[in-house]
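ESCALATION

Customer reports they have been waiting on this structure for their group meeting. Please prioritize. Original submission:
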Amino acid sequence: MPISKDRAIAFIFQYHYSQIMPRLTKYYLGIYEDKVLKGVITLGYGTQPLGTIKKLFYKHDLKSKDYLEIGKMCFIRDVNGDKSFGSKAISVLVKWIKANMKEVKFLYTMADGIMGKAGYVYQASSFRYLGSFWTSVYMDNDTKEKIHPRSAKKLCQENAILENKKKVFWLTQSFCDKKNISKIDGLMFRYIMPLNKEANKILDEYETYRHLAYPKDKDILYKKRIGEKQFIYIEQPKFNMRSFSHNHQKPNETIIQLDLFDN
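Update from on-call: job pushed to the front of the queue and completed.
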């Protein structure tokens, strides 16, 4: 059921590994059990809503209104022992979308491989796997802060000045060495759930999405840049997700107090 933005964000700040919120969030939903708030799921879009759906389904003229993306999904810690709770929550979510937004054809999401997530909850919920892609983040080696490229604007400006350039879009290796920052690549895993017969028909027209094996822990890979266009494979990096020296979005301390019970 829908809950207030403040209540949802407070829950996410308390229970999710990342406190950086998606910017294009449309719905904040609470998952209740015995009138106790046990989980929160947000729905919206990534940074390129129209680009995402067009890239996934390039043969069809689909629009952003045709899908929703799971932005954040987290559960209270006492349900971690119930391995089926996540799939139960997704089942409730799907029913809610079908009942309230019949025009939505697909539910899309990604498992954050760079954080060690293969997407087992989506696999248990029978999402279709659409493959993986590499993504890049930075890590401050002193604080272990995970720096999203969108949060590196000031660093890029500083980098450009030092390099005598008008603008840089990615931090150079020499700048990263100077600032003791690592550029790390990891995999993101795409999942999608068709929500009606039309969506199933559309999805079946893409042969490249058929019979893809679900990723497992062995498929989660990490690379660290050691020179311009030079990388080495590394073990999973240990980020400090409570460090905010570079990331702009910090927890709002005024909403951290959370009432878990539905009055």
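Sent to customer with the following note: Confidence is low (pLDDT under 50) at residues 251-258.
Escalation resolved.
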